[in-house]
Amino acid sequence: MELSEAKIIITGAGSGFGKSMAIHFLESKASVYAVDIDKQALESLKLVYPGIHIYQCDVANNTQVEQIIETIFAEDSGVNVLINNAGIMKNAPLVNLLQRPDNRHSLDVWQKVMDVNQNAVFYTTRSFASKMIKNRNKGLIVNISSISAKGNIGQTAYAASKAAVEAMTKVWAKELGFFGVRSVAVAPGFMDTSGTHDALEGKMLNRWIDLTPLKRTGKIKEVVSAVQFVIENDFMNGEVIHVNGGLSI
Length: 249
Known about the structure:
The structure is a single chain. The relative contact order is 0.14. This protein starts with 6 loop residues before the first strand and ends in a 6-residue tail after the last strand. Strand 1, helix 1 (16-27) and strand 2 (31-36) form a beta-alpha-beta unit. The chain is 46% helix and 15% strand. The chain is α/β, with parallel strands linked by helices.
């Protein structure tokens, strides 16, 4: 698919990877439908890039998701790409001996991570795929996963949610390929983002950098270029594209 033909819904488009993708694809002549829970972030994006379409939505709320997908397709029935980018990262061991009074992994943290990282991907893709099939649109679902899907210590919830995203990606590639709808995941490694620096102490991040063959963190633009490759390669389906500098967990 040529980028100029792409009509792209991006969740979590108000910041981070999502914002960078929204700007890049808009500047590449694609139509961009930016979805985020942060209304102010969306309005700030619209102020600088008036050609972008913005929609406030909590993607962990299925009712809101269905309303937003319905609205977007009513405005443009030719939408053909969904990028499930919205996500949160929370670190917590299964049992923390230094934590009192309950040293077990928080149920609230578990549920929040699953709601945003796993359930939201299911909600948005469920609604999107239904519209695509109904409108006989060929296109693509891109799910943003993580190197942590392989099982990173201290990230029970986050790793589980991203492993689920990769599994759903492969299922949807098989189920939706018949309709001309591809499904691919992009899994970044440790990236030079505020989220990475907030989640990892300096010593821990330096350890991961030392273990990475390229000896550095990745750049947001390197993830964006991987997503662009997936959009433009119409025979890419059911795969997980790793952008991690050669690091294995």
